[in-house]
Design brief:
It is built from 3 helices and 11 strands; from the N terminus they run H-H-E-E-E-E-E-E-E-E-E-E-E-H. It starts with 6 loop residues before the first helix and ends with a helix. By secondary structure, it is of the alpha+beta class.
């Protein structure tokens, strides 16, 4: 997914380029006046070194070329911003799946993923609530190397079913055959829901899923909402 740059940042870049171009034009005009005056008044027996003049003209030309390059980069920034917003708008009303640092308990379950560099002999997953308190400790049987996916049933250690809507994260502790901790990476939660809006107030386009703002480049799946889901959503509203 494309990551967009804010329109405010784009405007700032364009302002700096335009200011630089104006200053460059003034400096070029002054330089040419000085050069013309110098050529008119130079000593015929000791003329100005043409090599030095050539170097100065080359430097001025190089700056102009850099300004053109900056214009092209600014144009690309603007294209990225527009495409990011358009991409988000196209998701409105669709069912999406996205990754996040946390997962929201929905329909009595929440999904998490992680990766580990090797086979573990001891694997513990702690489910933590928004306050950082461990509500459930799990010991998955699958301890293979590579990517893992865990779907939690939403129950705490006492067996009580927790309410939907809660936001949870995980802590994974994996130990190898030598008893040392394995470096677990890519710990993510999953968010699923219908996109209701697009927000670009922070400069990074985000889609609203279940009231949560999620960066567009975190979306990993998009599907059309079924008729039944549309009916359920309308009834709930």
């Amino acid at each position: 997914m494309a990551t967009a740059v804010s329109s405010a940042n784009t405007s700032s870049v364009l302002d700096r380029i335009n200011n630089g171009r104006t200053s460059m034009a003034n400096n070029t005009e002054t330089f040419l006046k000085l050069l013309t005056t110098q050529l008119k008044n130079q000593d015929p027996l000791s003329p100005t070194d043409t090599t030095q003049m050539t170097q100065q003209i080359t430097q001025m030309t190089g700056v102009e070329q850099q300004l053109v390059t900056n214009d092209l980069l600014a144009a690309l920034v603007g294209m990225n911003t527009g495409s990011g917003l358009s991409e988000g708008v196209n998701m409105i009303g669709k069912q999406v799946t996205a990754t996040s640092d946390t997962s929201t308990l929905q329909d009595g379950k929440a999904t998490f993923t992680w990766s580990q560099p090797g086979q573990s002999t001891s694997l513990t997953v702690e489910i933590k609530n928004a306050a950082g308190k461990v509500v459930r400790t799990l010991t998955p049987e699958d301890q293979k190397s590579g990517a893992h996916t865990l779907t939690w049933d939403g129950k705490d250690d006492s067996g009580a079913q927790l309410s939907d809507g809660g936001v949870y994260g995980i802590n994974v502790v994996a130990k190898g055959g030598d008893g040392k901790d394995l470096k677990v990476t890519n710990i993510k939660g999953r968010i699923e829901g219908v996109v209701t809006a697009v927000d670009n107030s922070t400069g990074q386009p985000k889609v609203m899923i279940n009231g949560q703002a999620v960066p567009i480049d975190s979306v990993i799946g998009v599907t059309a909402v079924t008729k039944a889901a549309e009916t359920d959503t309308s009834a709930a509203a």
